[in-house]
Every structure is written in C-alpha cells, then in structure tokens.
Amino acid sequence: MPSLFEKDIQFLKGVGEKRAKLFQKLGAPTVGDLLRLYPRAYEDWSVHTPVRETVLGEVAVVQGTVLQRPSEQRIRGGKLLYKTRVTDGESDLVLTFFNNRYIPTLLREGETYLFRGKVTGTFLRREMLSPEFVPQAKELAIQPIYPATAGLSSRQIGAAVQNALQLLPEQLNDPLPDKLREQYHLCTLRYALETIHFPKTQEEIATARFRLTFEEFLVLQLGLLRIKSGRKQKNLHPIQEEFPQGFAQLLPFSLTGAQHRAIQEAVHDMAGDSPMNRLVQGDVGSGKTAVAAALCWSVIQNGMQAALMAPTEILATQHYHSLNALLEPAHIACALLTGSVKPGEKKKIYSALADGRIQLVIGTHALLSDQVAFHNLGLVITDEQHRFGVGQRSALAQKGASPHLLVMSATPIPRTLALMVYGDLDVSVLDELPPGRQTIETYLVDSGKRQRAFGYVQKHLDQGRQGYIICPLIEEDDSGLQSVTHYAELVKQAFPQATVGVLHGKMKPREKDRVMESFSRGETQLLLSTTVVEVGVDVPNAVIMVIENAERYGLSQLHQLRGRIGRGQYQSTCILITDAQNQETLKRLKLFRDTSDGFQIAEADLKLRGPGDFFGSRQHGLPQLKIADMTTDMEVLRQAQACAKELTRQNALEQPAYRGLRGEVRRLFAKTGGEGVVL
Ligand code: ADP
Ligand code: MG
C-alpha cells in the first residue's frame, strides 16, 4: 500500500482532476510532493511596529484601535472612498480604502485590528492605503506564500497543505534517526513540515528550514558518495611517485607553478593507497590539457592505458590532435574514437584497446559503448565534466578495475556548487595563467554600432588575424536554421573579401569538424557560430569576437565564449552587442565587461541566476533543490557533507535505523534518472 506521501494529490479533499493538473504543474503530483512544496516567502503578521517607528515606503504591520467610524466619500468615476483613523495608544495612523462598501461594517469603532500595508504619508502623519487587516483577537502568525500558478492561488495551496498535514499519521517515520538529529540539532520531520508551512515566529522558520536544508544536502551528498564508493577502495594501479620530468621536456613551454602543483598532487594520489579521485579546476586557458597529458604520460610509463572523454566531437578531436602531437615523440600510441569513426576503423580500435596496443584513447560518449574494453585501464579523464550526467562519470570508470579518475571542469565553478556536483573529489585549482597572456578588452554596445564593430573586425582580418562572430540564431528548429543562414548572408555581405565558415548545432559532426579544422588551420578567417564553439576550442590566432544578442547568455557561458580569444600573443577584443533595456540585464553585462576572473564571474552568475540555470540548459544530472539555497546555505552544506562522509564511513545506510534515509537517497537519484548509478 502506498504511504500517504506517495498518494496521488487527488486523494486530498478539494482537489479534483482539474486542480490536480495544476498541482502537477507546480511539481506536486503526490501528497508527499505537496508537503515538500515549501513556501517561497512569508507574510509576517507576528511582529507589529509602533506607528512612530514605521518606515515610510516599507511594509509594516501595525496594531491599532479604530478611533472613528469610517467616513464615506464619493469621488471621480463614482468610486467610493473610506477614511478612518486608528491609534496604537501613542500615535495615529490614517487609513484610506477605495470602493469597499463593507469597510464601515468590518472596521468597528473602539475595536483593535492588525493592519498590514505599505506606510505612506509624511514624517508627521503616517498613512496606509487599502491595508489588509484582521481582528486582533484572531490568532494570527505568519502567512506562507506559495509559488502560485494561474488557477491556483497561494491561499488554495496553503489550504491543501493544511489538509495534507492533518492526514499525517501520529507516528511519522523520520528519515533522520533520533541519534543523528540530536547530534546535529535537527528538529523532527513532523515539526519541520508543520512549521515550514505554518510557523508562528521567525525562529521557528529558521529551525524548520535548517532541518530541511540539512536533510536535502545530506541526501544529495550521500547519493554522490555512494556513486563514488561504488568503486573499490584499493589502489589497483599504483604508479611510481615521480614527477613526469620526461614529459615536461617534450613540452614547447615550461609548466606554470599551478600546473606543476596539480600534476604533483595527482601523481601523489596515484601512488597512494586508494585510487585517485580528483577534480582539476581552472579558468579558461589555464592549461588543463597539459596537466591531463602529463598524467596520461605517467600512467602509460607505468604500463597502463588511459582514456579521455570529452562532451563533443569537436573537443575530442582537438584533444586528440594536441595530445597526439605531445605524446607521439614519446612513442605513445593514441587513438580517436567518436561516433563518426567508420565501423571498420572502430573495430580496429576496439581490438587494439583490448590487447593494449593503444595506450591512450580519446573520444566522446562512443567510449561508453559495450564494445569498448581495455587491457589495463589505469586512468580515466573526463573533460568539461558537468556536461555529463552524474552517472556517466562512473560509467567509463567501470570499464576498468577501479582506475584513477580525473575530472577537468571547463568553467570555474563556485565552491558551493563544486562541492555539490563533485561530492568529495579532491580539488586542484589552476589559479595561474601561462605567462604572456593579454587581458581581453571587452566592449558593450548596441546594434547601432554593429557596422563599426564589423569594421574593427575587418581591420584585424587585414592584419592576418582571425575572428569569431557568435549569434544565438538557433539550432534546433527548422525556422531557426533558416535564420542562421540568413544571418550568414548578412555577414558574408559585410565581409565580401573574407573567407567565412559557418558552424551550428544542426550540422553533422563531420561537417562541423571540417569547418573547425579549416578555421584552426587559418584557411577560414572568420567563423560565424552558435555556442557550439563555446567549450575548449583553441585557435591562438583568433583575436576578435563579436557576440550578438549578448543578453541571451549566462555570464559563465559568455566567459567560456570569450575564452576562445586571448589565447596567443596578440591583444584580443570582445564586443558584446545588445539592445536590451532591462537594467538588471545591463548590470549583469557590465559586470562581465569589467571582470576577467572566471571564478568571480561564476559566483556572480550563480547569485544572479541560481544553480538550476548555472550550467545553462544542459543537463548537469543533479536534482533540483527544493529548499536549500546554494548562495547562502554554504555552512549547512559543510555540516551535511561532514555528516554524509561519517555515515558512509560507518556504512550506516545499511542499518535498519537508516532505511528511511536510504529510501530518500534512492528516490532523489531515481528522479534524475542517474544513468548507470548503483544505489
Ligand atoms: P584550458 O585550461 O582552457 O583547457 P588549454 O589546455 O587549452 O586551456 O591551454 C590553453 C593554451 O595555453 C594552449 O594553447 C596551450 O598550449 C597553452 N599553454 C598551456 N600551458 C602553458 C604554459 N605553461 N605556458 C605557455 N602556454 C601554455
Ligand atoms: Mg580545455
């Protein structure tokens, strides 16, 4: 029998088929989901302010006794206006109501009410226009405000929640056992649910919120740890702890201090007792590829194979070319495996991987194919990791016996988010750019300046440089495709002398590669592209970028785009074009214009757009948070993470007391469809 939590929302009184649809839309198809549909804010009637202390222009709750029967006055348009005065015993407040004939009967002289509204008037004479009010006698506290939808008001949601709360069994199973709650000072589930919806004081809200936030983070962290611990904990592929000096000598440049440190940390891991599990974070252009190459070299020198997975064909191909160029002189056999490799060729790669002739394979999701098997896989690297679902992270690793794992993140990720997405990976930060990098000059202009911007681009092309024009004219639908072509025509007219390549998501991988390669080789001067070019592409001769409709992108995405230029010795320029009028949008873009630090941009982006959007529209494989706020709940996250580690260490989820919690973990990751995750 399903528990109350799993029951269809229609089970509730007053919720019929029609309303159930609306609840579904809000993400609450079951009673349990409804109880977890938390208020997004509260209207606080519990604290009232003396009239004298109210602040002009702000909302306040005032307790006042009606001094006179509301007077009625007819004004323009036949409207009725009511006026009265109330007092808190010390000062008066003037109230005005429009067109509500019931005011004289609702507000009785000599009786006391609570009034809530924006305070207007003057310093000497406080007023409220049409405040909400309730009799003082009525026991009132804090009203929950729900994310309402058309046809379903916050009040109606509140009523349904109240119904659901009343149906909760006396003995409500709490996924957090008593011992744990005591240890972390957490209230019970029943108290938390009742209170988060209908609190009496702000302190109560804080108590309930802490418990629910903690639980949410805990469940998430436990799930992530479980994914990780699916791998055996013994290091089956120990390497010599030795800095890959031989590799460093192959490089045409010397490593930065940060690269050196990251390599050393990883080598230390791989020589240790358990397999490496490390995240390398670095700003765009900080040189993650060289770090990856060094580690592949080390593992291969120790007689093992390495695999590198990238999210797109373009990236995989590029990695293949640069790693192959670096490692071939050391007689390391590399192969590229993507969806567009011919079947015959694939077969050869499969067999050479299986018997160990290929030492390093670089590819896309194609690496996850059943036919891929390794002889002795020692190291798995995933690039631009957040593009992959949480589950895919472990899928490639499962092709070997607990290989070392290195994750390279494309964008700097705010610390909170990194903790969330990467569970407890060890982190190396590349906080240093290779020497000689120029800062990129960034301009923000409206479309009236497009011709001038194009003129500027032309000047650079004349000097033998290359450039990008990014337009969001999209990809998926047919009409969008039309417009990309249309825009391409405009660009070709604007640059009649130039060779222009066009790149967008609808193209076949092979066509994309052709366009990209031609640009890489410098045969194409100008690349008109959608954001498919966003990650990782490296063409140092490209020094200018124009981004159309800049307002459409998140800051981190803009940062990625901008990171395609400024990669060589030339001064680079990025021009953002927008006709947006919205002040917030302009503020965001100006912040971007004035900041080059990717970590700072990432923090701002997270604050502005929230975690859900942080990674753009792409799946990052993480469940949506219902209550926790990653910009403000960092401390709770830390505690929950410590708790998750402790529980995992004790193998606590296998104990009967933690059955409920285990269920929550499973449920959460089932919803996200955590592909390949064994929970
Ligand atoms: P990202 O961290 O964005 O992946 P890449 O690995 O693509 O950065 O490196 C960006 C560019 O910097 C490449 O052209 C690479 O050859 C160059 N590079 C990397 N490390 C160094 C270094 N230590 N000194 C000089 N150039 C470097
Ligand atoms: Mg890269």
UniProtKB/TrEMBL annotation:
* Reactions that this protein is recorded to catalyse: Couples ATP hydrolysis with the unwinding of duplex DNA by translocating in the 3'-5' direction; ATP + H2O = ADP + phosphate + H(+)
- Annotated source species: Candidatus Acutalibacter pullicola
Which keywords does UniProt give here?
ATP-binding, DNA damage, DNA recombination, DNA repair, DNA-binding, Helicase, Hydrolase, Isomerase, Nucleotide-binding
Q: Which GO terms describe its biological process?
A: DNA recombination; DNA repair
Specify the Helicase ATP-binding domain's residue ranges: 269-430
Q: What does this protein do?
A: Plays a critical role in recombination and DNA repair. Helps process Holliday junction intermediates to mature products by catalyzing branch migration. Has replication fork regression activity, unwinds stalled or blocked replication forks to make a HJ that can be resolved. Has a DNA unwinding activity characteristic of a DNA helicase with 3'-5' polarity.
Concerning its family, UniProt says:
Belongs to the helicase family. RecG subfamily.
NCBIfam families registered for this protein in UniProt:
PRK10917.1-3, PRK10917.2-2, recG
Please name the InterPro entries in this protein's record: ATP-dep_DNA_helicase_RecG, DEAD/DEAH_box_helicase_dom, Helicase_ATP-bd, Helicase_C-like, NA-bd_OB-fold, P-loop_NTPase, RecG/Mfd, RecG_dom3_C
Family annotation (SUPFAM superfamilies): Nucleic acid-binding proteins (SSF50249), P-loop containing nucleoside triphosphate hydrolases (SSF52540)
Question: Can you name this protein?
Answer: ATP-dependent DNA helicase RecG
UniProt GO molecular function: 3'-5' DNA helicase activity; ATP binding; DNA binding; hydrolase activity
Source taxonomy lineage?
Answer: Bacteria, Bacillati, Bacillota, Clostridia, Eubacteriales
Domain Helicase C-terminal, chain residue ranges per copy: 456-607
Among SMART domains, the record links this protein to: DEXDc (SM00487), HELICc (SM00490)
Q: Which PANTHER family match?
A: ATP-DEPENDENT DNA HELICASE HOMOLOG RECG, CHLOROPLASTIC
Keyword ATP-binding attached: yes
Enzymatic class: isomerase
Q: What is its EC number?
A: 5.6.2.4
